[in-house]
């Protein structure tokens, strides 16, 4: 009887061990077979193309997709130094349009963005860009005076002018935002009221309207979410370039 009891206990231990060893693999198979996982992911904005090719990921064939991306652009910062937007594939970027002569929308957008700059002041993987469309008037000296109250030199925040491309074409075709000269109204320019969140590949992952009360808080939350996504997708690259 003791032998039978011992054998039953041994069998029970083997079964428990087998379940412990096999369960993770089984769950991995189920999750990947169903095409789902527990991670949240932000959408990708803009046009996309499906070329008809595939790549292997986690043992499955995934259709290739070509997404809209914002190309790298050279600017001049408020301190007179050159700034390369999207030249680093390990940083996230928050971008918006503005101009210093606009005391309403632009001023509000800069003021609200300061909240984001302060919250991520210790995180060098998040960079903020306030891009002027008034490149003739907004010289580096003008932007330095304009931005002084926010102390952007203490944060990863750039007030930029003098782009290497046409700013209005760049705004419309790359940033997918309104920006045009206003010949009829009291304001010299019309600009969009959105912040854009770009991932390390230059893809637009979030659009946040300053006129929507909760959008600035949503921007903060989704920066954190995208940071987690980038680390999850590119752990070696992120770790090596710290």
Structure write-up:
- The chain is 37% helix and 24% strand.
- The chain is built from six helices and 13 strands.
- Strand 7 (92-98), helix 2 and strand 8 (126-132) form a beta-alpha-beta unit.
- The radius of gyration is 25 Å and the shape is elongated.
- The model is unreliable at 24-38 and 237-242 (pLDDT under 50).
Helicity range of the residues? 25-40%
* SSE succession: HEEEEEEEHEHEHEEEEHH
Radius of gyration: 25 Å
Question: Major beta sheet, specifics?
Answer: 7 strands, mixed
Mean pLDDT across residues: 85
Brief summary:
This protein has 242 residues and is of the alpha+beta class.
Helix and strand arrangement:
Blueprint: H1 2-34, E1 48-49, E2 54-57, E3 60-63, E4 66-67, E5 73-77, E6 82-85, E7 92-98, H2 105-119, E8 126-132, H3 140-147, E9 157-161, H4 167-174, E10 179-181, E11 189-191, E12 194-198, E13 204-209, H5 215-233, H6 235-240
Parallel strand pairs: 7-8, 8-9
Antiparallel strand pairs: 1-4, 2-3, 5-6, 5-9, 7-12, 10-11, 12-13
Name the features.
two-stranded antiparallel ribbon, elongated, seven-stranded mixed beta sheet, 6 helices, alpha+beta, 242 residues, disordered C terminus, 37% helix
